[in-house]
Amino acid sequence: MTAPVFLADRALLRTGTVVLGGPEGRHAVSVRRLRPGEEVVLTDGEGVGAYGSVIAAEGKDRLEVEVTEVREEPAPRPRLTVVQALPKGDRGELAVETMTETGVDAIVPWAASRAVTRWKGERAAKSLAKWRATAREAGKQARRLRFPEVGDLAATKDVASLLADADFAGVLHEEGAAPLATAVLPEAGHIVLVVGPEGGVSPEELELFAGAGAGALRLGPSVLRTSTAGTAAAAVLLARTGRWS
User: Which residue numbers delimit the Ribosomal RNA small subunit methyltransferase E methyltransferase domain (predicted)?
Assistant: First the structure.
């Protein structure tokens, strides 16, 4: 089994003896019940990982680790961002979790016109915090050194600007003229893919996105839920760009 990953301050990512405390130390000692000799990885979630083994687990939240190696993982190419329309209930966290495990680099929550869910006021702050916490925990579970960025809630015009700046942009749509599986993709740069809400992307949004350079692409013969479409599409893109090779 691969070593568990824990989030740590950048200052701890160095060779020698370091002490992991706080919530991460508590999880390692009291939940995972790590013992001396077990291997662990500490990361800042931004590409740096410290590899070592436990030398002591004390109290409820103090883990001493002897770090023997520090590695910095380069940013993957091409970068993949998924713009995710707000799903109903807890399906947003499901989408974030599975896209993180798959390897998406950034997730942008989108207030699509046909989305049933609305983020406003205090609810918006809490929901965004949940998405970010989900990405963080899923990043650790997936043994990633780079956790995906979860952006602020985007309006449709913000999404159009993001698409216009991308090296490849597309919108998943069941009536898309071309399949995502055969689209010509860049070897580097930035790929941005839009996943619409359960009610679909509106004609006005499709027109705006097309003007920004994002054509409608179909994923396959079946229609996926908005909470799973991004993960399936990410798998296609990561495999085709060689990032899974």
Answer: 77-237
175 contact partners, CB below 8 Å, separation of at least 6: 216, 218
83 Cβ neighbours under 8 A, 6+ residues apart: 108, 110, 154, 159, 162, 192, 193, 194, 195
How many of the other CB atoms lie within 10 Å of CB of 23?
Answer: 10
Q: How far is CA 202 from the centre of its chain?
A: 25
User: Distance between CA atoms of 28 and 22, rounded to whole angstroms?
Assistant: 10
Query: What's residue 1's pLDDT?
Result: 59
- For the record, the structure tokens of 101 come out as 């495990």
Report the percent of the chain where pLDDT is more than 90.
Answer: 92
Residue 80 identity (one-letter amino acid): L
Is pLDDT of 243 > 90? yes
